[in-house]
Amino acid sequence: MTTTERPAPPHFLGIGVVRGGTTWLWRQIGLHPGAWMTPVKELDYFNRLYPVVGGPPGGEVEVAEGIDPWRETLRRLRWDRLGRYLRGSDPATLAWRWRFYRGRPSPEWYASLFAPARGRVTGDVTPHYSALGDDGVRHVAERYPQTKIVLLLRDPVARDWSHAAHFLGFERGRPIADLTEREILDHIHDPSTRARGDYLPMLARWERHVPPERFFVGFFEDIHERPDELLRSLWRFLDLDDDPALLPPGRGRKVNAAGGGAAPAAVSRHLAELHLPALEALAGRYGGAPERWLARARGLLV
Questions:
Q1: Does the N terminus or the C terminus of the chain have fewer Cβ atoms within 10 A?
Q2: Domain limits of the chain?
Q3: ω before 69 within 30° of 0 (cis)?
Q4: Which residues of the chain have a pLDDT value below 50?
Q5: Cβ 295 vs Cβ 284: under 8 Å
Q6: Integer Cα distance of 55 and 237 in angstroms
Q7: Could you name the CATH architecture of 3-155+199-256?
């Protein structure tokens, strides 16, 4: 597809999952000469319009009311990173960051964030989009009918633990060893966390509104085990040149790792039991990596 044939950006949304390889996706696609990715990974546009607060396991997510976009912007702008932003940015990138952090969400503001792409493939990689409720997903599909969707799934047992270790440990500055089992389980069962780790309802919502030819599902393990195949498959899906000579160095390297080590045994068993029905369904549907997730979960329950 030539640049003149491409629809208006974003050409794709990387919708998740949280702690499932989206930072790798954002970085690797941005290294392709035919692509351009925004300087900030998570634009959070659609979940500002349809804020997710959670929902019952296996059910529809709920939507918050009265979210203040400016307050949310201040929350997202990590002041401890401001110096790095300023030192490592050229004038054009600084102008982009100013527009992003100070702008009020609107279709025009969102479109302006992709203007530097100038015909190259570009996208919005925001893992929280995976948890959008049906109204939010419908809005995306109706407002951006040609935009493609990329979903990277991770073993939900490992994902839930990584999410807990990152949020309770890294984000709050606490040693992982200090976390109690009760704290971990409370986080795991928080409705907001469940909305981001409940794969079957998530897939059902997006597949209701997005046709299969515009929906890509990959697996976290492939980032490390077969990164070339995964990346070239993504390039083809996004209508990018898949010449092996374009593969960047370090493509199989871990990025944004939580560093939490292994989950406590009781937590792992709890998660295996929690996710077992979904794992059986995923293994039957996709085979491959989900079959290994299922085998590990069953091993934890022996």
A1: C
A2: 3-155+199-256
A3: no
A4: 56-59, 65-67, 69-70, 79-80
A5: no
A6: 32
A7: 3-Layer(aba) Sandwich (3.40)
